[in-house]
Design goal:
The protein is of the alpha/beta class. The protein has seven helices and nine strands. The protein is globular, with a radius of gyration of 17 Å. Bound molecules: adenosine-5'-triphosphate.
């Protein structure tokens, strides 16, 4: 098993507060990994360190053979927790814009945007502006924007939050499709059911520390408490 991502004893301290403590885990290449924990557990802080958006206070991170996300930026796709930017653009423009940031020529970005929107049943959305789309549609467009450059590693921060069950299912299918095409996926969530349906592996964080790493089945066998995320606070 080759690891696409390895964290070794990673910690993050804000002032006197330890947000992430001595965190180690691996994400195997080509897998879908769920990063679980209640609000405030340290998930976003960890994802930002993996992406190279903020430095770790201590420890080592290796993503796609590089010390942090900054050095392999064009090979990574990222869906941040804060969404809803570029409201005045059309979906094709927004997707091509993100592609361009990752080095994809504009005409190619637009072509791929149209293909991907059609594939996801969003053909009709092409004529609208981002601000006119439903939340579910906008979320799918933003995931397409995050992966239009065909990244090897896709990081999604709370991708299911605020979506109704139907749109959650659509997003799950998109994530499965990414892995089927060979990408490695790491997504954060505080809802165990999303991980159960999708993940080859889960890592559970509680108060900045790793509470569990393994398959969903192992997690269930180990202790039902492991799956009780609110109880893990
Ligand atoms: P959520 O889903 O609510 O975003 P999370 O698991 O992603 O939760 P983080 O956002 O990583 O958690 O935050 C972990 C802890 O670190 C929280 O207590 C938060 O208040 C604190 N924290 C995060 N960023 C900073 C910062 N820049 N300065 C100080 N404290 C911070």
């Amino acid at each position: 098993m080759t690891a696409a991502l390895t964290l070794e004893s990673v910690s993050k301290r804000y002032g006197g507060f330890d947000a992430v403590r001595d965190l180690s885990f691996e994400v195997p290449k080509g897998s879908i990994c769920g990063f679980l924990g209640p609000n405030g557990a340290g998930k976003t802080s960890t994802l930002r360190m993996i992406l190279g958006l903020q430095p770790a206070t201590s420890g080592r991170i290796d993503i796609l053979g590089a010390p942090d996300g900054r050095l392999v930026r064009d090979r990574i796709g990222f869906l941040p927790e804060e969404r809803g930017l570029y409201k005045k653009m059309t979906p094709v423009e927004a997707i091509a814009f993100f592609g361009a940031l990752k080095g994809l020529p504009s005409h190619e970005g637009k072509k791929r945007a149209r293909q991907l929107l059609e594939q996801q049943g969003l053909g009709a959305a092409q004529k609208k502006k981002m601000k006119e789309l439903s939340k579910g549609m906008a979320q799918k467009v933003q995931l397409i924007a995050a992966v239009v450059h065909r990244p090897e590693f896709v990081i999604l921060d709370e991708p299911f939050s605020g979506l109704d069950p139907m749109n959650q299912q659509g997003l799950e299918e998109m994530i499965r499709g990414l892995a089927a095409d060979g990408a490695t996926v790491l997504f954060s969530t505080h809802v165990m059911q999303h991980a159960e349906r999708l993940c080859d592996k889960v890592v559970l964080l509680a108060k900045g520390r790793k509470a569990f790493e393994g398959t969903v089945e192992e997690a269930k066998a180990t202790s039902p408490r492991v799956l009780d995320l609110e109880g893990a606070i």
